Amino acid sequence: MYCLRLRCLVLIFVNPLYNVGIGGGALLGHWVTQYSGISCIGVAGMLTAAAGLWVCLNLNRYIRT
Fold first, then answer.
1. Is the pLDDT reported for residue 16 higher than 70?
2. Which of 4, 15, 26, 43 is the residue whose CA sits 20 to 30 A from 33?
3. Which of 56, 58, 53, 47 is nearest to 15 (CA)?
């Protein structure tokens, strides 16, 4: 289980898509606050984080040790 977590962290921080995710999160936060108000940003962030975790765990299946 520890090895799985470590590989997932390496995938997140080494993958160049990490920077795309940071930029996408900033844009999402801007859009949510502009169109829905500051009170909805927590829900939007939670849904985005859950989707990112799902993608990370599914990509983890294809990493060979």
1. no
2. 15
3. 56
Q: Is the dihedral of CA 5, 8, 12, 13 positive or negative?
A: positive
User: 45: exposed, middle or buried (C-beta count within 10 Å: 0-12, 13-18, 19+)?
Assistant: middle
Q: For residue 15, tell me if it sits in a domain.
A: yes
**Residue 41 resides in a domain:** no
> Which pLDDT score is estimated for 57?
73
Comparing C-alpha atoms, which of 6, 10, 45, 1 is closest to residue 24? Answer: 45
List pLDDT tens digits, range 26-48: 777 777 777 777 766 777 777 77
> Burial code of 3-12, b = ≥16 C-beta within 10 A, e = fewer?
eeeeebeebe
Structurally, the chain folds into a number of domains equal to 1
Q: What are phi and psi of 26, to 5 degrees?
A: -65, -45
